[in-house]
């Protein structure tokens, strides 16, 4: 199986098995627990207060672009590592490998 087909197969199984949703749910739970969601909301409100919203103010796309990097920085290393390990374990299981081999 080519690398591209293997990737597609693992991605398909990732979604169909429900593992993707389980990881998303875990991530959202950790973000709420850490206060990340509240911090991002504060940043959005600040941008809207400063720039307004709509045609002459901030658009949803502009707010997203402005917050993408700072909001990612707010995610704890522990949360990033937990999600990364969950994904690694899934891939290792699908390929019959030890998680330390990938």
TrEMBL record:
<dbReference type="GO" id="GO:0005643">
    <property type="term" value="C:nuclear pore"/>
</dbReference>
<dbReference type="InterPro" id="IPR038212">
    <property type="entry name" value="TF_EnY2_sf"/>
</dbReference>
<dbReference type="GO" id="GO:0070390">
    <property type="term" value="C:transcription export complex 2"/>
</dbReference>
<keyword id="KW-0010">Activator</keyword>
<comment type="similarity">
    <text>Belongs to the ENY2 family.</text>
</comment>
<dbReference type="GO" id="GO:0006368">
    <property type="term" value="P:transcription elongation by RNA polymerase II"/>
</dbReference>
<dbReference type="GO" id="GO:0000124">
    <property type="term" value="C:SAGA complex"/>
</dbReference>
<keyword id="KW-0539">Nucleus</keyword>
<dbReference type="Pfam" id="PF10163">
    <property type="entry name" value="EnY2"/>
</dbReference>
<keyword id="KW-0804">Transcription</keyword>
<dbReference type="GO" id="GO:0071819">
    <property type="term" value="C:DUBm complex"/>
</dbReference>
<dbReference type="GO" id="GO:0006406">
    <property type="term" value="P:mRNA export from nucleus"/>
</dbReference>
<dbReference type="GO" id="GO:0003713">
    <property type="term" value="F:transcription coactivator activity"/>
</dbReference>
<keyword id="KW-0509">mRNA transport</keyword>
<dbReference type="InterPro" id="IPR018783">
    <property type="entry name" value="TF_ENY2"/>
</dbReference>
<comment type="subunit">
    <text>Component of the nuclear pore complex (NPC)-associated TREX-2 complex (transcription and export complex 2). Component of the SAGA transcription coactivator-HAT complex. Within the SAGA complex, participates to a subcomplex of SAGA called the DUB module (deubiquitination module).</text>
</comment>
<dbReference type="GO" id="GO:0015031">
    <property type="term" value="P:protein transport"/>
</dbReference>
<keyword id="KW-0811">Translocation</keyword>
<keyword id="KW-0653">Protein transport</keyword>
<dbReference type="GO" id="GO:0005654">
    <property type="term" value="C:nucleoplasm"/>
</dbReference>
<keyword id="KW-0805">Transcription regulation</keyword>
<protein>
    <recommendedName>
        <fullName>Transcription and mRNA export factor ENY2</fullName>
    </recommendedName>
</protein>
<keyword id="KW-0156">Chromatin regulator</keyword>
<keyword id="KW-0813">Transport</keyword>
<comment type="function">
    <text>Involved in mRNA export coupled transcription activation by association with both the TREX-2 and the SAGA complexes. The transcription regulatory histone acetylation (HAT) complex SAGA is a multiprotein complex that activates transcription by remodeling chromatin and mediating histone acetylation and deubiquitination. Within the SAGA complex, participates to a subcomplex that specifically deubiquitinates histones. The SAGA complex is recruited to specific gene promoters by activators, where it is required for transcription.</text>
</comment>
<dbReference type="GO" id="GO:0006325">
    <property type="term" value="P:chromatin organization"/>
</dbReference>
